[in-house]
Amino acid sequence: MKKLTLLTLALFAVGVVSISAADAKAIWEKDCAKCHGAEGKGDTKMGQKLAVKDYTDAKVQAEMKDAEMTKAIKEGVKDKEDKTKMKAFGDLTDDEVKSLVALVRGFKK
Q1: d(CA 109, CA 39)
Q2: Long-range contact pairs involving 64-71 (C-beta distance under 8 Å, separation at least 24)
Q3: How many domains does the chain have?
Q4: What is the mean pLDDT of residues 60-78?
Q5: What is the DSSP letter of 85?
Q6: Which pLDDT score is estimated for 18?
Q7: CA–CA separation, 70 vs 74, rounded Å?
Q8: Of 10, 9, 24, which Cα lies nearest the Cα of 94?
Q9: CA 19, CA 99: separation in Å to the nearest integer?
């Protein structure tokens, strides 16, 4: 009985992770890809205009901290003149934000 319960919980956890990954991908495609690109390279017209980072670059990934990415997603990003560079996505849940951060980490080559 214990094994069955553990197996059920493990399968449930895998399902939740899969759903989160799928949700993150959908959020990325809807809200992020227009600037950051489908693969996180920042090679879109808007991404180049805003000089967004190439998330496939290992050096860029090493410089980024998860807490900074989380703050950027939740609070947005402003330039030196206090002009909005990236709008805030404060309506996302903590789990959605964590999933987006994990998705960005997965762009590293």
Answers
A1: 11
A2: 64/104, 66/101, 69/100, 69/101, 69/104, 70/97, 70/98, 70/101
A3: 1
A4: 96
A5: E
A6: 45
A7: 6
A8: 24
A9: 10
Q: Give strand pairing partners of 84.
A: 78
Q: pTM value?
A: 0.78
Q: How far is CA 11 from CA 1, 84, 88, 90, in A?
A: 15, 42, 34, 30
Domain that holds residue 61: 2-105
pLDDT at 1 over 80: no
Question: pLDDT per residue over 25-59, tens digit each?
Answer: 999 999 999 999 999 999 999 999 999 999 999 99
How far, in Å, CA of 69 to CA of 59, rounded? Answer: 15
